[in-house]
Specification:
Blueprint (H helix, E strand, L loop, with lengths): L4 E4 H4 L8 E8 H6 L1 H13 L1 E8 L1 H10 L4 E4 L2 H9 L7 E13 L12 H11 L3 E3 L5 H12 L11 E3 L4 H11 L2 E5 H5 L7 E5 L6 E8 L10 H11 L2 H9 L1 E2 L2 E2 L2 E2 L3
Parallel strand pairs: 2-3, 2-4, 6-7, 6-8
Antiparallel strand pairs: 1-3, 4-10, 5-8, 5-9, 5-10, 5-13, 11-12
């Protein structure tokens, strides 16, 4: 059975109102690793008297939790999977909240020579040609789904790769730790990379290709499918996440002066 991490604002912050209502939301490991939750959760609790408990998993597992009715809402980043979730009647709608981008990380000396690539498919082809060590999330997350699609766009099939390609079946932080230990290439979302503390000999080597755009969206679980979900609280949370207050916090969240997310809710 897959395990997931539950992060509650009660656990993160000691001064919590005893009257706070509780809502369960599945979020990606990349969102959690970014550190943004530590900014948003106490403000949500202060403004709404709402304790948002985060179940931290990959996108695929988050959607499974939603399908089972084990959470009230989902915040993930894989549009095709999200749209299928809504089309199948498990979510009421999909609401875009914020975005960042994916980046390629690797050894600072760049043995595959990807720094000067003009497209991400060229960079990945260079890694494959060099058979340079590459760590994949391998966990059906939004990041993993995106990585596999990029290999496919480059005309390559990850299933046929040799031992240089390591699918670790782990979240973003754990995968980055593995890449750091192996001095390997890896694809990460920018926010997780900037907030990652064990960079070792790794560096950000490639970014900027428009196909690396990384949108995060909020999906309420449909109460018609699961009547026990807290639909009124989900609506309150969605209104807050799409408000000017959320925009201010999301756009203002930086590490070393670099913005991690851009608010784009409508």
């Amino acid at each position: 059975m897959k395990q997931f991490l539950i992060i509650s604002s009660l656990a993160l912050f000691a001064a919590v109102s005893a009257q706070a209502e509780t809502l369960r939301m599945a979020v990606t490991t990349s969102f959690h690793n970014s550190g943004l939750a530590k900014v948003l959760l106490p403000e949500i609790q202060k403004d709404l008297a709402l304790d948002v408990q985060l179940l931290v998993v990959g996108t695929g597992q988050a959607l499974k939790l939603g399908r089972a009715g084990d959470v009230d809402a989902i915040l993930v980043h894989s549009r095709a999977a999200e749209e299928a979730f809504v089309a199948e009647g498990y979510g009421t709608h999909r609401r875009e909240i914020m975005y960042n981008d994916f980046v390629l990380i690797g050894p600072a000396d760049d043995p595959a020579g990807i720094k000067d690539a003009t497209q991400v498919t060229d960079a990945l082809s260079a890694i494959a040609m060099a058979e340079a060590s590459f760590v994949s999330r391998g966990d059906d997350s939004g990041t993993h789904k995106k990585e596999l699609s990029l290999w496919q766009n480059a005309g390559l099939d990850a299933d046929g790769f040799g031992r240089w390609y390591r699918a670790v079946g782990a979240g973003m932080g754990a995968a980055l730790n593995t890449a750091s230990g192996l001095d390997a290439y890896i694809m990460s979302d920018r926010a997780s990379w900037l907030n990652f503390g064990n960079k070792g000999g790794l560096a950000l080597l490639f970014s900027g290709d428009p196909v690396l755009f990384n949108q995060y969206a909020f999906l309420p679980v449909d109460p018609a499918r699961h009547p026990h979900v807290k639909a009124e609280l989900v609506t309150k949370l969605e209104d807050w996440l799409t408000s000017p207050r959320a925009a201010e916090l999301i756009n203002g969240y930086t590490i070393d002066g670099e913005t991690l997310f851009v608010f784009n809710a409508k």
